[in-house]
Design goal:
Number of domains: 1
Oligomer: single chain
Largest sheet: 6 strands, mixed
Number of helices: 14
Distance between the termini: 49 Å
Structural class: alpha/beta
Low-confidence stretches: 15-31
Number of strands: 6
Mean pLDDT: 86
Strand order of the largest sheet: 4-3-5-2-1-6
Strand content: 5-15%
Length: about 300
């Protein structure tokens, strides 16, 4: 049971960028782009890199333009500083917010059709149905969105933000690290949805996992292509509950833009790494900074 709890906590931290999920699309031809933008003000600059939190070795080494942008920055800005998360505390919070107590179970909160989908998912991935029955719908939804990626060989320890956090944690690093949110805040966000929305979230997540078992590989292909338009188009085809998509994406973007602007108004360059879905589109951080009068350009690769 403890092993399962630790796994679910790791999944929670690893998977936010996949929500809202991106649908599978045909891979494009290789492009000389990266999901990296440079924003400039009168006195300073800020690099914004779209991250995927669950990666693979195929993503490395990173383009020299990305590494150079990081090297030129004094501060690394991330959604959550994963290297400083108190995993024991977070696991306890997840148990209290994400697990049913007493005789209650998942089956009391979802339809018989959804129960069949969950049982089939567990059977497919050789997961304990009894353990899933103790979880609330949002926890099962996250697991369903993440397990296929990990089975396909992807790893939270190879995520883009984790890569840069590990670089910043080295003894010879002089980087400051700033987290925009916190793991506890993200946990509260996910656990705060109504029972009805959680059930819809779970049903959509199971359906997506069944349709696109190589879904995370497709996300990786989009990331490697640097094709912001393709990323935005994929986001628009997400089939999840719109209320959850809004809460996980659009509602968080203004605060991220505020933090980015705070550093743009400073004197030292910074390197801003958040889930790629937060940067693109009319409601994304890049568009928000442009609306505030900053010059923002996608960095070409040579």
């Amino acid at each position: 049971m403890r092993k399962q709890q630790r796994l679910l906590t790791a999944l929670l931290l690893a998977c936010l960028v996949t929500l809202p999920r991106l649908v599978a699309q045909d891979a494009p031809a290789a492009a000389k782009k990266a999901l990296l933008w440079k924003a400039t003000s009168g006195n300073n600059s800020l690099y914004l890199l779209g991250s995927i939190h669950v990666g693979s070795k195929d993503m490395y080494p990173l383009a020299k333009e990305i590494e150079s942008a990081y090297a030129a920055s004094k501060t690394l800005i991330v959604e959550v500083d994963l290297n400083k998360v108190d995993m024991q505390k977070l696991t306890m919070l997840m148990m209290s917010k994400g697990m049913y107590q007493g005789d209650d179970s998942l089956w009391n909160h979802v339809t018989p059709e959804t129960r069949k989908k969950v049982e089939a998912f567990c059977d497919q991935y050789q997961l304990p149905v009894a353990g899933f029955a103790r979880m609330k719908p949002w926890v099962v939804a996250i697991t369903a969105a993440t397990i296929p990626a990990m089975k396909a060989g992807m790893d939270p320890n190879l995520g883009i933000d984790k890569y840069f956090l590990d670089k910043a944690a080295k003894a010879d690093s002089k980087k400051d690290v700033k987290e925009i949110e916190s793991a506890e805040w993200q946990l509260d966000l996910l656990s705060g949805f109504s029972d009805e929305l959680q059930a819809k979230f779970l049903d959509a997540s199971i359906d997506q996992a069944n349709r696109s078992l190589d879904h995370s590989k497709q996300i990786q292909e989009i990331w490697l292509s640097g094709d912001a338009a393709r990323l935005e188009a994929a986001m628009k085809e997400d089939s999840g509950p719109p209320e959850i998509t809004k809460a996980l994406l659009q509602d968080r973007n203004p605060h991220m833009a505020d933090i980015a602007e705070q550093y743009l108004k400073g004197k030292d360059p910074a390197f801003f790494v958040v889930g790629a879905a937060h940067l693109v589109g009319k409601d994304g951080v890049v568009a928000a900074l442009e609306k505030r009068g900053y010059k923002v350009q996608q960095v070409p690769l040579r």
